[in-house]
Amino acid sequence: MTRTLISGGLVVTAAEELEAEVLVEDGRVAALALRGSEPARTWADSGAETIDATGHYVIPGGVDGHTHMEMPFGGTYSADTFETGTRAAAWGGTTTIVDFAIQRPGESVRSGVDAWMAKADGNCAIDYAFHAILSDVNESSLKEMDVLVDEGITSFKLFMAYPGVFYSDDGQILRAMQRGAANGALTMMHAENGIAIDVLVEQALAEGRTDPRYHGEVRKALLESEATHRAIQLARVAGAPLYVVHVSATEAVEELARARDKGLNVFGETCPQYLFLSTDNLAEPDFEGAKYVCSTPLRPKEHQAHLWKALRTNDLSVVSTDHCPFCFVGQKDMGAGDFSKIPNGMPGVENRMDLLHQAVVEGHISRRRWIELACATPARMFGMYPKKGTVAPGADADLVIYDPNAEQTISADTHHMNVDYSAYEGKRVTGRARTVLSRGRVIVDRGSYLGSAGDGRYVPRSTCQYLV
Ligand code: URP
Ligand code: ZN
Ligand code: ZN
Ligand code: ZN
Q1: Which domains are seen in the chain, by residue range?
Q2: At how many degrees (to 10) do helices 250-261 and 221-238 cross?
Q3: Using a 6 Å cutoff on CB, does residue 179 contact ligand 1?
Q4: Of all protein residues, whose CA lies closest to atom 7 belonging to ligand 1?
Q5: Tens digit of each residue's pLDDT (9 = 90 or more) over 269-289
Q6: Matching PANTHER family, A to Z (predicted)?
Q7: ipTM of the modeled complex
Q8: Residue 391 Cα distances to 33, 43, 174, 272, angstroms
Q9: Distance between Cα 149 and ligand 2 center (Å)
């Protein structure tokens, strides 16, 4: 049996803050004991290997419920492999990701899942799970959903955007939702009216509006809120739960808030880029705006305060990254002279925990809410709690010894993501993961990476744990 004692820290979970010692046995949290209590004194004398967490937080490892490693998009692939992307996640204090296995039109959902399993197998630094993207909703893919739910792939992303690529029409969406209502699957929605957006793209390009900032102008907030509204109504008709991904517009948040006030099983996610960046970045000169092209797009700064408020009131309940990096040189520049050819997506899997801690420092959210948004809720939403997302007896010992006073400047020169720029270049933040444990093994410690590719295990999931 391996035994480790994490001593001297402030344990922070979504539920509480405790001056407590954490005993880890065989990769799991065995017990917590308040500092100075009888069991804590016994453990201290037991000769167990001890990690000193004095002056630090002991938090659950981050759960990033939305990443895209090696994702095919617009004729290229996102630049992080499962190996580089999960290692970068570990550096940033994230110990579980849920990536997306893509069904290609004309192919089975299973073939997508098999392909993504093969990409991840033996390469991951941290534990991983999959959602499936449905790009071809038909009788046989609906049947496949039932089997996949039983096997632990319990959430399915549909796209109201990207006609001709990932797009599903309202009838396909309704059918998939009806199936989800029956088999327990959670429908995840990319809510943008892609048909209308494509008209505006065509018009913009015809008028010579080709710079990255027009990506933000054609993908209008109203077309996000319209799609969000439609997705909610379709989910109501189907009697199905709905999780709207990468919400960026105030108007879309209002749709979610209305649905939630009715007591519907409707949930929303946002991402750090929408909280910290804006259309000002998309408008950066010399094509630099391409670094910030993602969908939904960055919005004018005024939206940020609404997103923060929604994160406090739980109208938005998860912050994930939508990590989908493309290099500025050689990938983003595929769209020089035509913003519609810029591969969509931004890096961030390494930065999420720190950016959200910075939000604690700045007073946007509380310390426990930080853990709730970044660890506990995504673990519950996607059926992995309490194995993941908390510090409690029986949980996997995915733990971060977090230094709340460490000062750092985010930069591509020092990050570990396989991408040639940082979306947060030069941003100063307070807080950093000092030591990261994955199932009880130290994989990052004081600036050294001690893990290896293949440490991470696949996590089959139960269904969403919020449904009544
Ligand atoms: O721009 C983005 N978000 N790229 C990744 C694919 C998606 O829609 O999530
Ligand atoms: Zn999307
Ligand atoms: Zn409300
Ligand atoms: Zn995404």
Answers
A1: 61-381 (3.20.20.140)
A2: 20
A3: no
A4: 295
A5: 999 999 999 999 999 999 999
A6: COLLAPSIN RESPONSE MEDIATOR PROTEIN, HYDRANTOINASE/DIHYDROPYRIMIDINASE FAMILY MEMBER
A7: 0.94
A8: 12, 18, 38, 24
A9: 21
